[in-house]
Specification:
It is a multi-pass membrane protein. InterPro entries: LHFPL. Its main location: membrane. The chain is an alpha+beta fold and 225 residues long. Helix 1 runs antiparallel to helix 5. It is built from six helices and nine strands, in the order βαββββαββααβααβ. Helix content is 49%, strand content 12%. The protein has a single domain, classed as Up-down Bundle (Butyryl-CoA Dehydrogenase, subunit A, domain 3). It starts with a strand and ends with a strand. The protein is elongated and about 70 Å long. The longest helix has 27 residues. A hairpin with a 2-residue loop joins strand 6 and strand 7.
């Protein structure tokens, strides 16, 4: 018989796991990792900013995408990938970042999917599903940390210098500032480790004595605080 077990701690862990996975996925796909210095569409790029007069805007650069305003566009900013193949990503460090982030996000999405079914299934191959998911989240967190540590090492690439000026160098953003996607990725990484630790509390909540008493009474739907 399938016993549906719902506790506050298990539901909170499920919710946080989903938030962490989607947060990292959205950050990875975003172009707002670096925010370039203000310039106009027809500006001349230099180490001290744009030299042409007019309405300024700030382009953004992601791991594989960018947002720019072209001279022929009267309104709006064009966003899309600048790299259509893996080898076209700005630097080898960003290629490594892509691999580590993608691996971490894949694990997080798998855990988020599995967490939805933990109300009905609390074990897999005689192992606690919460412990298994917590381990996967810990591994995903390590992948994410490696990716975020390697990301600033790619700031010295030619692509970044176009957006951030000639002063841009590894671990020095030059005239650029960090965009919301970078901070979202950092927050998602912290939340991933919180979920990994909190999975133990979800396991304790779903295997407590109160839950066992409810099962022995023949209840199939068990809701506990």
């Amino acid at each position: 018989m399938c016993h549906v077990i719902v506790t506050c701690r298990s539901m909170l862990w499920t919710l946080l796991s989903i938030v962490a996975a989607f947060g990292e996925l959205i950050a990875f796909m975003s172009t707002d990792w670096l925010v370039g210095y203000p310039r106009t569409p027809d500006a001349v790029f230099g180490s001290h900013g744009a030299t042409a007069a007019g309405e300024a805007y700030r382009p953004t650069l992601g791991i594989y995408g960018r947002c720019i305003k072209l001279p022929q566009m009267q309104r709006g900013i064009l966003c899309g990938p600048y790299a259509f193949r893996f080898g076209e990503i700005a630097s080898g460090f960003w290629q490594a970042t892509s691999i580590f982030l993608a691996a971490g996000i894949l694990l997080l999405c798998a855990v988020a999917f599995i967490s939805i079914f933990t109300m009905c299934f609390q074990s897999i191959m005689k192992k606690s599903i919460f412990n298994v998911c917590g381990l996967l989240q810990g591994i995903a967190g390590l992948f994410l940390i490696l990716g975020l540590m390697l990301y600033p090492a790619g700031w010295g690439s030619d692509k970044v210098q176009v957006y951030c000026g000639l002063d841009a160098a590894p671990y020095r953003a030059g005239l650029c500032s960090m965009g919301w996607a970078f901070y979202t990725a950092m927050g998602g990484t912290v939340l991933t480790f919180i979920c990994a630790v909190f999975s133990a509390q979800a396991e304790i909540a779903t295997s407590s004595d109160k839950v066992q008493e409810e099962i022995e009474e023949g209840k199939s739907l068990i809701c506990l605080l």
